[in-house]
């Protein structure tokens, strides 16, 4: 049986303690057996280990082999360049990994630094880490709860548990018996570590410390949830492995063919030189095929996406999350503050003579009942607003004074006009608050509280300005109206008063009251959210509400937002627990609302969607959300949330608004589209180089490129246009398509077609150029210069057709992406530098290479671009993939 279901004496007995607390010896013994009241943390991976791990990529391994061979052959410049690139990429990877702060550190920071306990028959303050199970702790308003425990005494106790339960308002606590099994948020006789006492005082016995607390369970969940790779990371890793093995195999095959030719056709005197040339040929293939700058370019494009998202109130903490958000198929969202305004608002006013959504007339034209209702709402109220409009106090009380201000009766004027004489503070046991004021020369007791309680205290009722006896018929009407409001998920308060001649109050004065009316409040949906949910649906994204609030409230908000459809289901956490995995998977797509959920529930929901191959986003702001935020493909924390939730997330919403998520999804989809464009651009050019090298091998020509030429193209020339493609604007259809299949490879559909078409088109142009150099100009050196020029110009020019698979550069707006035009200009300038007399020897370009040779090479390069753009007009594609 759980502690909250046991009588206090049984709890004390099971913990080997009494209501007078423990002795120092007992505390020491328990600390030796069970440890301290603190959260444990797993050792982090060392920086060196992270650095080494970054070299395990197959393409990186191939480049390392190439660099080592270059060093052995004395080609130090090429090897230094390759090693420098690899080290820079590794450092970037390590820094990015270390930037993810430790969520558990924030959890530990939430622990109270000290606590008041009863030990050795005396009250004393001790460090919270020294608390043990069985300690008697004293709580007062403003205290952080240091450990989980069962209440022994509670006076008007209210605890802010939102970070743990998702509740939007403080929870009332009582030292009562609870026999049935209940959700965490409904355990009114328990308090939990990391929560805050906002009102009242209490004594409780500690039932759990450290990892045994609810906060500790959250910490353990966070530790046990492994970091997930994004779809792009998984596909790049898979592609990298395949490409690495293909390149290695191709290089070895080429070397084997060359070696066979050497041993079968040449004399032994040329063996060493010929084998060296064969090595260089094989190395050229590896260097040509591997896009050395790929990791850096993807990182830069993702960074561009983070800047765009920041302008839409979405701060990215982990770069890959930009792309992940674009592939999201399900958004599991919190209700409070995300779908709603997180601001309790008065929406209905009920007086026995009539009902209206809001007071319909000016305050000067109000009935006596309307005036009296507003007076009670403002005066029997402890909340306030400062000059900046910042509120302090209970959210429901703040809603009352906000409403008074809104209707033209500043709450401060009412309080100055009718000052409080005496009060009976709110008490969770009686659920009432009363204050005494002199209004129009008469002392009045003004009372507000829970409708069920207040109805029983009223013997009279105010109707049309007259006080009459409360009849059974009136009472029945009031109960029906309260139930009607409750079914609409409203938070309802009742208001009453009575004349009172004395100035010292006691609890008996809260009887024989005159009922005035009801005010119904709700945390209303954000006006723009309904349209955002509709846009998400059009983009094939399912929205699911997961909240700590009651099911009725959650379902009502979901209906209002059109998130809950006719055949949909709403479940509580307990109802979810009762479902088997098979039953959950069967019903999953029909469950739109989960209420009263636990951290374990949230993880299970996210995992269920992931098991259906859906990229799942999860929003949250509390400690209880952190494990699910980490489990999700992309965790989205609220800017107003806890540090724990932010640390566990990949993205933070600065405005806590669901609309910003949908806007960020559009940016994410565009970022992924641009990354694919950049990758396709890089591999198209590399494929062209490989095709030319293989053709030269088959034709027994000289190697068309040197390793340095290829490194220059891959690292310098191609990088700038690839980054510019990352700035490409969003294509119009991007939010009208379903999310892509997470199992879809990088090179599929039109992307694969365009890479093959562009690669072979460039390769053929380079082959023709080298052939002209060999057979027309009769010079192997000229043929290499012409092949290099054709390749670099073709790859530079192909940035224009690479902008879109469906539109030509002119259809997309030639100058709409000024970065592409600028990248082309920079690349042409860099190429001209290689033509300078002092630079030519470095790039193996002979002085005999002149305007005629350049014109032929440039003409072939331009022809490739024209062919690729004409293809889009002759064979148009419907949509880009």
UniProtKB/TrEMBL annotation:
<feature type="transmembrane region" description="Helical">
    <location>
        <begin position="820"/>
        <end position="839"/>
    </location>
</feature>
<protein>
    <submittedName>
        <fullName>Cation-translocating P-type ATPase</fullName>
    </submittedName>
</protein>
<feature type="transmembrane region" description="Helical">
    <location>
        <begin position="275"/>
        <end position="302"/>
    </location>
</feature>
<keyword id="KW-1278">Translocase</keyword>
<dbReference type="InterPro" id="IPR059000">
    <property type="entry name" value="ATPase_P-type_domA"/>
</dbReference>
<dbReference type="InterPro" id="IPR018303">
    <property type="entry name" value="ATPase_P-typ_P_site"/>
</dbReference>
<dbReference type="GO" id="GO:0005524">
    <property type="term" value="F:ATP binding"/>
</dbReference>
<dbReference type="Pfam" id="PF00122">
    <property type="entry name" value="E1-E2_ATPase"/>
</dbReference>
<dbReference type="Pfam" id="PF00690">
    <property type="entry name" value="Cation_ATPase_N"/>
</dbReference>
<dbReference type="GO" id="GO:0016887">
    <property type="term" value="F:ATP hydrolysis activity"/>
</dbReference>
<feature type="transmembrane region" description="Helical">
    <location>
        <begin position="59"/>
        <end position="88"/>
    </location>
</feature>
<dbReference type="InterPro" id="IPR008250">
    <property type="entry name" value="ATPase_P-typ_transduc_dom_A_sf"/>
</dbReference>
<dbReference type="InterPro" id="IPR023299">
    <property type="entry name" value="ATPase_P-typ_cyto_dom_N"/>
</dbReference>
<keyword id="KW-0067">ATP-binding</keyword>
<feature type="transmembrane region" description="Helical">
    <location>
        <begin position="243"/>
        <end position="263"/>
    </location>
</feature>
<dbReference type="GO" id="GO:0006811">
    <property type="term" value="P:monoatomic ion transport"/>
</dbReference>
<keyword id="KW-0547">Nucleotide-binding</keyword>
<dbReference type="Pfam" id="PF13246">
    <property type="entry name" value="Cation_ATPase"/>
</dbReference>
<feature type="transmembrane region" description="Helical">
    <location>
        <begin position="679"/>
        <end position="702"/>
    </location>
</feature>
<dbReference type="Pfam" id="PF00689">
    <property type="entry name" value="Cation_ATPase_C"/>
</dbReference>
<feature type="transmembrane region" description="Helical">
    <location>
        <begin position="708"/>
        <end position="727"/>
    </location>
</feature>
<dbReference type="GO" id="GO:0016020">
    <property type="term" value="C:membrane"/>
</dbReference>
<keyword id="KW-0472">Membrane</keyword>
<feature type="transmembrane region" description="Helical">
    <location>
        <begin position="851"/>
        <end position="870"/>
    </location>
</feature>
<feature type="transmembrane region" description="Helical">
    <location>
        <begin position="755"/>
        <end position="776"/>
    </location>
</feature>
<feature type="domain" description="Cation-transporting P-type ATPase N-terminal">
    <location>
        <begin position="2"/>
        <end position="75"/>
    </location>
</feature>
<dbReference type="InterPro" id="IPR023214">
    <property type="entry name" value="HAD_sf"/>
</dbReference>
<keyword id="KW-1133">Transmembrane helix</keyword>
<dbReference type="InterPro" id="IPR001757">
    <property type="entry name" value="P_typ_ATPase"/>
</dbReference>
<dbReference type="InterPro" id="IPR004014">
    <property type="entry name" value="ATPase_P-typ_cation-transptr_N"/>
</dbReference>
<dbReference type="Pfam" id="PF08282">
    <property type="entry name" value="Hydrolase_3"/>
</dbReference>
<dbReference type="InterPro" id="IPR036412">
    <property type="entry name" value="HAD-like_sf"/>
</dbReference>
<keyword id="KW-0813">Transport</keyword>
<keyword id="KW-0812">Transmembrane</keyword>
<dbReference type="InterPro" id="IPR006068">
    <property type="entry name" value="ATPase_P-typ_cation-transptr_C"/>
</dbReference>
<comment type="similarity">
    <text>Belongs to the cation transport ATPase (P-type) (TC 3.A.3) family. Type IIA subfamily.</text>
</comment>
<dbReference type="InterPro" id="IPR044492">
    <property type="entry name" value="P_typ_ATPase_HD_dom"/>
</dbReference>
<dbReference type="InterPro" id="IPR023298">
    <property type="entry name" value="ATPase_P-typ_TM_dom_sf"/>
</dbReference>
<keyword id="KW-0406">Ion transport</keyword>
């Amino acid at each position: 049986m759980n502690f909250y279901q046991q009588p206090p004496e049984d709890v004390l007995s099971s913990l080997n303690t009494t209501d007078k607390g423990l002795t120092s010896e007992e505390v020491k013994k328990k600390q030796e057996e069970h440890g301290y009241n603190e959260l444990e943390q797993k050792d982090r991976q060392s920086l060196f280990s992270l650095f080494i791990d970054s070299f395990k990529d197959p393409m990186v391994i191939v480049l390392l082999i190439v660099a080592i061979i270059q060093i052995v052959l004395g080609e130090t410049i090429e090897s230094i360049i390759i090693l420098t690139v690899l080290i820079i990429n590794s450092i970037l990877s390590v820094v990015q990994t270390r930037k993810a702060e430790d969520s558990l550190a924030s959890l530990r920071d939430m622990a109270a630094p000290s606590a008041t306990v009863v030990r050795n028959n005396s009250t004393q303050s001790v460090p919270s880490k020294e608390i043990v199970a069985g300690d008697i702790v004293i709580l007062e308003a403003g205290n952080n709860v240091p450990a989980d425990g069962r209440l022994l005494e509670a006076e008007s106790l209210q605890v802010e548990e939102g970070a743990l339960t998702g509740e939007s308002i403080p929870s009332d606590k009582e030292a009562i018996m609870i026999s049935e099994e209940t959700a965490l948020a409904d355990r009114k006789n328990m308090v939990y570590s990391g929560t805050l006492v906002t009102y009242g005082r209490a004594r409780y016995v500690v039932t759990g410390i450290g990892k045994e607390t609810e906060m500790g369970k959250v910490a353990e969940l966070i530790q046990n949830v492994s970091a997930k790779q994004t779809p792009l990371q998984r596909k790049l890793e898979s592609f990298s492995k395949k490409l690495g093995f293909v390149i290695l195999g191709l290089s070895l095959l080429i070397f084997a063919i060359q070696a066979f030719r050497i041993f079968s056709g040449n004399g032994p005197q040329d063996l060493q030189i010929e084998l060296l040339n064969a090595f260089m040929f094989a190395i050229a293939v590896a260097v040509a095929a591997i896009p050395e700058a790929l990791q850096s370019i993807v990182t830069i494009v993702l960074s561009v996406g983070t800047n765009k998202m920041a302008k839409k109130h979405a701060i990215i903490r982990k770069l890959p999350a930009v792309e992940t958000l674009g592939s999201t198929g399900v958004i599991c969202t919190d209700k409070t503050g995300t779908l709603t305004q997180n601001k309790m608002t008065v929406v209905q006013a009920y007086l026995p003579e009539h009902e209206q959504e809001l007071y319909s007339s000016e305050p000067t034209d109000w009935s006596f009942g309307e005036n009296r209702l507003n007076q009670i709402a403002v005066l029997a109220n402890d909340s306030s607003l400062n000059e900046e409009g910042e509120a302090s106090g209970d959210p429901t009380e703040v809603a009352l004074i906000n409403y008074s201000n809104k209707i033209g009766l500043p709450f401060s004027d009412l309080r100055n006009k009718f000052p409080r004489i005496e009060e009976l503070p709110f008490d969770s046991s009686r659920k009432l608050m009363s204050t005494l004021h002199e209004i129009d020369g008469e002392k009045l007791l003004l009372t507000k509280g829970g409708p069920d309680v207040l109805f029983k205290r009223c013997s009279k009722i105010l109707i049309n300005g007259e006080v009459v006896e409360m009849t059974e018929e009136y009472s029945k009407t009031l109960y029906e109206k309260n139930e009607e409001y409750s079914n609409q998920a409203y938070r309802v308060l009742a208001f009453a008063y009575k004349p009172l001649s004395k100035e010292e109050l006691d609890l008996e004065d809260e009887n024989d009251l005159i009922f005035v009316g009801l005010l119904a409040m709700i945390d209303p949906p954000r006006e723009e959210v309904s349209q955002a949910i509709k846009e998400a649906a059009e983009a094939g994204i399912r929205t699911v509400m997961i909240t700590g609030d009651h099911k009725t409230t959650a379902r009502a908000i979901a209906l209002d937002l059109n998130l809950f459809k006719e055949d949909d289901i709403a479940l509580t956490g307990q109802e979810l627990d009762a479902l088997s995995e098979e039953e959950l998977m069967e019903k999953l797509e029909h469950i739109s609302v989960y209420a009263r959920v636990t951290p374990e529930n949230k993880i299970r929901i996210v995992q269920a969607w992931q098991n259906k191959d859906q990229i799942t986003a999860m929003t949250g702001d509390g400690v209880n959300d952190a494990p699910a935020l980490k489990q999700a493909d992309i965790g989205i924390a609220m800017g107003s949330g806890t540090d724990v939730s932010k640390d566990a997330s990949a993205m933070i919403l600065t405005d806590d608004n669901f609309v910003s998520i949908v806007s960020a999804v559009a940016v994410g989809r565009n970022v992924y589209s641009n990354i694919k464009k950049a990758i396709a651009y890089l591999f198209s050019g590399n494929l062209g180089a490989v095709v030319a090298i293989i053709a030269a091998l088959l034709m027994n020509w000289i190697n068309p490129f040197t390793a340095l030429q290829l490194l220059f193209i891959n690292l310098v020339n191609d990088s700038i246009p690839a980054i510019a493609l990352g700035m490409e604007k969003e294509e119009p259809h991007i939010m009208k398509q379903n999310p892509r299949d997470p199992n879809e490879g990088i090179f599929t559909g039109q992307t694969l077609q365009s890479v093959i078409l562009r690669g072979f088109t460039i390769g053929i142009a380079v082959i023709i150029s080298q052939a002209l150099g060999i057979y027309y100009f009769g010079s192997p050196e000229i043929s290499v210069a012409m092949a290099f020029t054709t390749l670099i110009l073709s790859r530079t020019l192909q940035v224009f057709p690479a902008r879109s698979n469906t539109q030509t550069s002119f259809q997309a707006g030639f100058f709409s992406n000024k970065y592409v035009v600028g990248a082309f200009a920079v690349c042409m300038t860099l190429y001209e530098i290689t033509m300078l007399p002092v630079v030519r020897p470095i790039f193996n370009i002979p002085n005999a290479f002149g305007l005629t040779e350049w014109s032929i090479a440039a003409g072939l390069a331009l022809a490739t671009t024209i062919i690729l753009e004409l293809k889009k007009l002759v064979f148009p594609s419907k949509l880009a993939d």
